[in-house]
Amino acid sequence: MEPNETLTWEDVVLRRVRPEFADELHELIEDGREHIASWMPWAAEQTYQDTVDFLARSVASWDSGETFNYSIFVDGRLVGGTGMMTRRGPGTLEIGYWLHPDAVGRGIVTRACRAQIAAAFALPGIERVEIVHDAANTRSGAVPARLGFTEVERVPTDTRSKNHTGLDVVWRLNRSGATVS
């Protein structure tokens, strides 16, 4: 089973990524490259072909049930990306996200995560939703804290971008007792 291809929370609309988003997505990455790459190493040298390839992989990984990637839209405008990934093991979906710098600080990711949490817990067998971020990325860490997640561990990891400390913070929200509002 898979989540809906379109998720909505208030003014935030998440749409399953599609190959036809390539031009708009790549333009967004190009325009916000410095900000995005400070936490997302893939953005540092992302070419148009890399974007096309990412979208093709996203279609395949959605179809296989491995990853559910969405583009984030507000008022019809693409502002970032998010996704739910199965890489944290059975019964768990991990949410990841990034935004163009013009969209930061407006609660967009919080609303996008609310939509994904509701979708995740509507799927059979999903007992936990996790968010993982670098310890220095306090804006990213504010999202799970705001949504009632509990910090469960800090894990040493390789530094992946110029701002990474090499310490990932893992947050968890369990199905039991989870409320999304």
TrEMBL record:
<dbReference type="GO" id="GO:1990189">
    <property type="term" value="F:protein N-terminal-serine acetyltransferase activity"/>
</dbReference>
<feature type="domain" description="N-acetyltransferase">
    <location>
        <begin position="12"/>
        <end position="176"/>
    </location>
</feature>
<dbReference type="InterPro" id="IPR051908">
    <property type="entry name" value="Ribosomal_N-acetyltransferase"/>
</dbReference>
<dbReference type="InterPro" id="IPR016181">
    <property type="entry name" value="Acyl_CoA_acyltransferase"/>
</dbReference>
<dbReference type="Pfam" id="PF13302">
    <property type="entry name" value="Acetyltransf_3"/>
</dbReference>
<dbReference type="InterPro" id="IPR000182">
    <property type="entry name" value="GNAT_dom"/>
</dbReference>
<dbReference type="GO" id="GO:0005737">
    <property type="term" value="C:cytoplasm"/>
</dbReference>
<dbReference type="GO" id="GO:0008999">
    <property type="term" value="F:protein-N-terminal-alanine acetyltransferase activity"/>
</dbReference>
<protein>
    <submittedName>
        <fullName>RimJ/RimL family protein N-acetyltransferase</fullName>
    </submittedName>
</protein>
